[in-house]
User: What shape does this take?
Amino acid sequence: MMDLRELYQDLIVDHNKRPRNFGKIDDTTYYAEGFNPLCGDQLTVYLNLDGDRISKVTFEGEGCAISTASASMMTEILTGKTMAEADELFELFHQVLVGEIELDDDTTLQLGKLAVLTGVRAYPSRVKCATLAWHTCQGALHKQHDGISTE
Ligand code: ZN
Assistant: This one.
């Protein structure tokens, strides 16, 4: 049987080493800077919208492996989603991470690749690393440009 934990670890390492959609979108008003003071993670999320659909999402910045991998996966997952779908997914992800929703087969399926990040749910400080990009993305969607913090 394949060791799930190892697979999860590999995915996080891979996204941390080769972050997807890393960079800036120059001509957008949808961006926000986020900071996780507990860990020192800092990143900026940029979005292009087509109506209420996210047509492009990128990020840049520096942080730990969890925050970078989470941001990278987020950009892949949110591309093509509507704002409402993005909100819904973040809500689910967050609730699983803080232990409000059980991580069962259904939830795992809904989370897709993000499920690999739920290993941090035993560690409250790492939960902030995993959700920083998402909080920042919400800020970007609402044109709240800076001061997005996990605290
Ligand atoms: Zn971190």
Observations:
- Helices lie at 4-17, 65-78, 83-97, 105-111, 124-141.
